[in-house]
Amino acid sequence: MSMLRSERMLAKYPFIAAARDYLSRRGIALDELGSGRFGRDVERAYERVVEALKMGEDAEIGLYPDEEVEVLSFAIALLFVASIGDGWLARRWALAESLRCGRFLEEEEPEIVAELLRAELGIKVEPSPPGESGLGAYKVWAPHYLTLTSRIDSLEWKLVNRVVRGGWVYVTPKELARIAVEAIQKRILSRYEDARGTPLPDSLTAVAKRIREMLAEKRSFEVEAGQVSEEYWPPCMAKIKKELLAGLSVGHFANFALAAFMLTAGYTQEQVIAMYSQRSDFNEKIARYQTEHIAGQKGSRVKYTPPSCSTMKTHGLCVEEGRLCPGIKNPIQYYRREARRAAQRKKIEGRNDEEEKRDSGGGFLATST
Amino acid sequence: MSGPVERSMAFVKRVFREFYRDNVGVVSPPPRPEAREFGYWSFERGEMVRHLSFRSAEEVRAEIAKVVPLHAYRSAAYYQYPSAPMEEKGWQAADLIFDIDADHLDVPCVTQHVYRVCPVHGLLDDGAKTCPVCGTGAREVDWVCDICLSAARAETTRLVEILVGELGVNEGELEVGFSGNRGYHIVAYSPDHLTLDQMARKDLVGYLTCVGLSPGLLGLPWKRGGRGRPRLDLLPPPAFNEPGWRGRIIRRAYSILQSQAVPPGLERYAGIIREIRDAWSVEPDWTVAPLGFWTRLLDEAIRMEALRIDPVVTTDIHRLLRLSGTLNGKTGLLAKKIPLEMLEDFDPLNECVVLPREERVRVRVAYSPAFRLGGEEFDEISEPRSVMLPIYAGVYLVLKGLARIEA
Fold this sequence. Notes:
Chain A is mainly alpha-helical. Chain A starts with 6 loop residues before the first helix and ends in a 10-residue tail after the last helix. Chain A contains 16 helices and 4 strands. The longest helix of chain B is centred in the N-terminal third of the chain and has 20 residues, at about 5-25. In chain B, about 30% of the residues lie in helices and about 20% in strands. Chain B folds into 2 domains: about 5-205 and about 310-405, DNA primase, PRIM domain (Alpha-Beta Complex); about 215-305, no CATH class. The interface of A and B includes residues 155, 160 and 314 of A.
């Protein structure tokens, strides 16, 4: 624990419990924060949030030379984000802050990383016994490993491709640092959840307003994403969409599948980009490029069709093993079938309406069938 | 007036009611029953009653004895408000659950277990949709036998070994039970696993079923596609005693090699298989065969070793699971917990028979294959006829859709 107590450590990892003690020892009250005394802290807090908001995973929050400012500004930044209460902003900020910590962690002694995970993040980590260090210098308790890595979209992180023994998963020091980034992101988000909706002291509302305006500009896509209709969508695609809207991290393959599905079904590129904008690491330029690529306007000029149901299954994206979609081989087939059925239903209803009108002797001409 | 089906089901319900009246202590609600959702199928209404909650195990038992359900379920999840609609329940955690079903295993008998019958005229031809005599729609009946039930039990043992040996579940936190029909349920109550979210459970399922397994990452020969073939002499040599997937795959590959037949897909290597066999029995070595041979052999080994669990059940954190200690309405057998040390010799077709064995009932059997149940052997009944059977066997055939109680 002691090795995490230095001011330098608190500045690098301001989410840790000792940082809160450090602040409470200074006895700073919430409504004092707007006073000139904390001008630098507030400015730095603003910078942290805005950098995250603008740049996402490319944010460079860095390390401010004054350690006290660094610790306090993190707390104020959390306050800003919590008072604004926008889930997307919170995720994007937590992502940027955790990646910032990750950069410092890469430089630390592995034992510090392990200690941080153990003492601050409640993750069971042990150095591997000498005979097993060839498997990885550290081992992480399997359920904790699963919780922290299941959203990393890469084969080598899948549990089935790891050495797993006696409930432990073996990892290298570098991998341990990556796991710590995930844990930190989770921790910051849970701090956000706890603090969500905390009202700001009046003196800070002007700064918060500036953040909010910037956010609104960035989030003009959001409205559009909510408006994309899921009518006739197969369960697998509806699920990806739901997860995106809920801010869950969705793997690359799922992203591709959804984009190819939407474009094939006739949705516009703008609507597809709006879906991607839900990601906390959203980068409009990249999203646009990828969407154009899938639409066949870039690169190989191949217009991609959605992956088949069996490929969706392999990637674990099929819902209920296809029990909900008998006879369907490709998600787009489901969409077309449902749309066709709906059109037929409409036609029949239209006809009935007409008959009713005729029966009732109504003099109106039917305008549609 | 009620027809023969209603009459039969009324009889079965009476038998179930008497069972619960005398044995309600057998009903075994899960830990923290007050945080669970319960549900059941009733005999009369063909629908599920859900979102029930009770304050204690005693209340659950009293309800079962009162309602006498055809099937009874409990949630794997723990909720803040178990009886609220799904979105408002307040999910807190969920037991880690597994379902191993005989018909998901690669056992050859499974395909022979589906019968089509007309309730009056008996066995129909394969593929018949209606009875040629009376035009009644064919009823499809799934049967089970000792072979597929043993396979399910063996798969359960494998799962338990991996959960305990590799995934950090304590034996004391495991509950294994026969489902009362043709499979086993495994529940892990380990605190660190209860809070796993859907994604984490999916990754855990991938571990067990080998989905996403990439042999190269485990130091096994693999095809990298196109250029850049990996060099076999650089790979760690096969070691049979290794734990985990690497060991299981290598051991399976070895046993495929040792079997007399040429493994499927490897026909064109038939000429050199003997050499490889000999080489591996002295000093196992990847370099004794070309890469293409190993990738095909390992594919087959992985396919055979992958666990056959139902991935949907394990990843669904809101799943309802059959309540232990209740009667299964597809068979009349008890969904029974099995102490781990008894699993290896567990005989569900005997030990889960809890309905009366002495009393008999007259049933009209449309068709029945020969079967063993409750320690008795029953001959095939190939033509519809009326017979006297012990109550447990009569109920079994009625619930399978093969017989009716006679007035």
